[in-house]
């Protein structure tokens, strides 16, 4: 009998603790619940970069709005996407936060797929002309602006000046050049130092997309239809890539960690990527002073080719389910889209390079960077960003990138370019249900 | 076995064990090194452990994450064992045609991937206002077909004569379960406990979907946070993985013997 009473008591205690836990969640049911008129919730990732920037922005905004409160929930990008998809497809938009950070590559896809989930920021007080057009283009759907641009994905070419010197070159030799000149000099460097100029992850399309965008090319046309077959720019890009691999100037590695390893281990003489790669380069403190940044090589034989491109980057979106959409828009327009001092604060501490054009002229952006040979690389990159041609991403951008990556892998091992491009386009069309 | 064969066998086993132990060794090595040294491929213990610990605790709320992980896993394991063992016992001891059919349906549910039920579940939990709550966290996985099946299988080996005798002696059905079945099935419980604790501890997708509050972070979420960003600090990341692994390892080693017995279905 005693045992029975004991077990009943235990069960009771368990149920009680469970209900107690149920209530102690604290934040309430929805992200927006319990939100006061002066409070915003934000989902973003990376404490050293995005979260830090958000918190600094809150401090800036609090100067004029002392009651303002910002609640940042650290959420990796993959989870932002999962939660967004779940909330939007189950029509629970009020469970989303007021502001979320979105990868530029996925921006149009999400706005087109879930048109009710985001607030149109055109005419909300955000001055979009202060950002490069190619950057805002990622978050524009049907002429409406849905995102406030944040971190910069402008493509850079970074070189080891000590290795170049060994082969008799300087970083100036690599500025404003074409890919064939790049390859010729790369061969010489490889012969003299044994180091390839460039490494990239096999089976990834980052470098391909950088090259394509630099010539104003896209995988989709303006209406969102795949345009790979007959796309001269794409064909030229693939030819250039394959020729680089065959000459040994570009070495393919298996994954991201190995890619970073080629730089930190000094097995390559340079790299080409979004400017955020600088953060990884700088982890090798012993290489300080031996790196230089310049623009990327351009394609030949295609119209509109430039030495500028983009890879990655992200923008802030305001959700339609937000309880305080006006506050969210005002907050973004006064900080990320309106405060040079804000960008001056976050840059030195986090290297958070932005795309806000007025910030490029600031003194802080113009400061020489010891690691990169004492050059004012931040101002330089912000200038690069202003010259990048736009890219049409659309809903199926990721599928198209993957299809192109597969095509590249096959072409490198000897397959025919035209038929591989055809296969890639068919794959994307299949994904689109066409 | 001849000497040569023995040598071959040992050589093979040595290679296999090195392959399986190496990742663990590497995880520990990486946790004591600076990120740049990890990416340079170091294989010896470094001196950055203290730095990594400091940075990990400064950048992430490790105490909250550990506390939450323990809270959710323990509650989940306790309730799940109770529910599933009663269900498994019931399906076997009081079985008839209809219950067997219900059991097949439950087993069929094992084949449905979670991703397929996630959105409907989210809708249900949202309307029931269970988002951001412990109940919402544990409810979908309290009863799993696998555990029910496991308890049903072990109930099969529970002699029915004893039950008859117990009934004649005046024990109620609940008492038979509580006083006779439960103590004899200790090893099954231990195995089920290990499995449930581990899956609760490691669960990621569902918690991540329904928990939107920074205070409800769990260890796997914390590890995921560390991998996101332009620079991944491998030293700190591996330290976090190490911290995340230790509790499950302890649980496993504590229950190791019973776990093996329970899985093979031994009854003493």
Automatic annotation (TrEMBL), chain A:
Leader peptide range in chain numbering: 1-22
A Pfam family recorded for this sequence: SBP_bac_8
Keyword Signal: yes
Protein's name in the database: ABC transporter substrate-binding protein
Keywords: Signal
Keyword Signal: yes
InterPro entries according to UniProt: Bact_solute-bd_prot1 (IPR050490), SBP (IPR006059)
Coiled-coil ranges from the UniProt annotation: none
UniProtKB/TrEMBL annotation, chain B:
InterPro entries associated with the record: MetI-like, MetI-like_sf
PANTHER family xref list: ABC TRANSPORTER PERMEASE PROTEIN MG189-RELATED-RELATED (PTHR43744), ARABINOOLIGOSACCHARIDES TRANSPORT SYSTEM PERMEASE PROTEIN ARAQ (PTHR43744:SF2)
UniProt GO BP: transmembrane transport
Listed PROSITE patterns: ABC_TM1 (PS50928)
Gene3D superfamilies: MetI-like
Domain (ABC transmembrane type-1) ranges: 66-255
Location of the protein in the cell: Cell membrane
Family: Belongs to the binding-protein-dependent transport system permease family.
Keywords, in A-Z order: Cell membrane, Membrane, Transmembrane, Transmembrane helix, Transport
Main location: membrane
CDD domains in the record: TM_PBP2
A GO term from the CC aspect: plasma membrane
Membrane-topology descriptor: Multi-pass membrane protein
Taxon lineage: Bacteria, Bacillati, Bacillota, Clostridia, Lachnospirales
Record flagged with keyword Metal-binding: no
SUPFAM superfamilies named among the record's database cross-references: MetI-like
Protein name: Lactose ABC transporter permease
């Amino acid at each position: 009998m005693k045992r029975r009473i004991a077990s009943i008591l235990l069960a009771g205690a368990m149920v009680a603790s469970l209900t107690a836990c149920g209530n102690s969640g604290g934040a309430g049911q929805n992200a927006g619940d319990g939100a006061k008129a002066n409070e915003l919730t934000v989902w973003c990732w990376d404490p050293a970069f995005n979260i830090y920037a958000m918190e600094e922005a809150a401090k800036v905004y609090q100067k004029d709005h002392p009651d303002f409160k910002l609640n940042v929930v650290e959420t990796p990008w993959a989870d932002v996407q999962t939660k967004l998809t779940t909330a939007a497809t189950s029509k629970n938009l009020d469970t989303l936060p007021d502001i979320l950070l979105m990868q530029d590559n996925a921006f149009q896809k999400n706005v087109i797929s879930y048109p009710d989930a985001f607030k149109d920021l055109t005419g909300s007080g955000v001055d979009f002309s202060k950002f490069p057009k190619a950057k805002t283009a990622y978050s524009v759907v049907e002429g409406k602006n849905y995102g406030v641009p944040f971190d910069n994905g402008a493509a850079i070419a970074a070189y080891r000046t000590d290795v170049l010197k060994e082969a008799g070159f300087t970083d100036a030799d690599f500025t404003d050049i074409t890919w064939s000149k790049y390859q010729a000099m790369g061969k010489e460097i490889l012969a003299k130092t044994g180091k390839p100029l460039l490494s990239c992850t096999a089976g990834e399309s980052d470098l391909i997309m950088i090259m394509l965008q630099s010539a104003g090319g896209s995988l989709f046309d303006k209406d969102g239809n795949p345009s790979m077959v007959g796309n001269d720019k794409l064909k030229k890009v693939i030819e250039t890539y394959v020729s680089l691999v065959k000459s040994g100037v570009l070495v393919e590695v298996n994954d991201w960690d190995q890619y970073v390893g080629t730089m930190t281990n000094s097995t390559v003489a340079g790299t080409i990527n979004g400017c955020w790669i600088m953060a990884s380069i700088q982890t090798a403190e012993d290489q300080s002073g031996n790196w230089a940044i310049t623009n990327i090589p351009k394609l030949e034989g295609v119209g509109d080719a430039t030495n500028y491109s983009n890879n990655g980057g992200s923008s802030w979106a305001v959700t339609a389910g937000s309880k305080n959409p006006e506050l969210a828009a005002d907050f973004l327009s006064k900080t990320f889209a309106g405060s040079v001092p804000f960008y001056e604060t976050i840059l030195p501490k986090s290297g958070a390079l932005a795309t806000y054009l007025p910030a490029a002229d600031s003194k802080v952006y113009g400061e020489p960077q010891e690691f990169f040979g004492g050059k004012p690389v931040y101002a330089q990159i912000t200038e690069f960003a202003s010259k990048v041609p736009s890219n049409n991403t659309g809903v199926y951008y990721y599928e198209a990138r993957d299809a192109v990556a597969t095509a590249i892998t096959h072409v490198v091992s000897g397959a025919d370019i035209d038929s591989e491009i055809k296969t890639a386009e068919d794959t994307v069309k299949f994904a689109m249900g066409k | 076995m001849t000497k040569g064969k023995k040598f071959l066998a040992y050589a093979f086993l040595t290679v296999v064990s090195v392959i399986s132990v190496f990742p663990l060794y590497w995880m520990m090595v990486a946790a004591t090194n600076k990120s740049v040294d990890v990416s340079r491929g170091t294989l010896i213990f470094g001196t950055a452990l203290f730095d990594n610990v400091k940075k990990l605790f400064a950048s992430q709320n490790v105490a909250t994450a550990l506390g939450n992980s323990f809270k959710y896993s323990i509650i989940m394991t306790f309730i799940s064992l109770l529910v599933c063992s009663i269900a498994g016992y019931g399906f076997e001891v009081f079985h008839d045609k209809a219950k067997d059919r219900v059991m097949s349906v439950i087993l069929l549910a094992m084949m449905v991937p979670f991703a397929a039920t996630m959105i409907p579940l989210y809708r249900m939990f949202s309307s029931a206002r269970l988002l951001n709550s412990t109940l919402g966290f544990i409810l979908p996985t309290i009863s799993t077909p696998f555990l029910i099946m496991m308890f049903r299988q072990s109930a099969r080996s529970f002699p029915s004569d004893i039950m008859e005798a117990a009934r004649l002696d005046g024990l109620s059905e609940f008492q038979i379960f509580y006083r006779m079945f439960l103590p004899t099935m200790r090893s099954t419980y231990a195995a089920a406990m290990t499995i449930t604790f581990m899956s609760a501890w490691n669960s990621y997708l569902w918690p991540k979907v329904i928990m939107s509050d920074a205070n409800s972070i769990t260890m796997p979420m914390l590890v995921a946070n560390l991998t996101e960003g332009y620079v991944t600090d491998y030293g700190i990341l591996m330290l976090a993985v190490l911290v995340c692994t230790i509790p499950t390892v302890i649980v496993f080693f504590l229950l190791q013997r019973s776990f093996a017995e329970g899985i093979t279905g031994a009854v003493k």
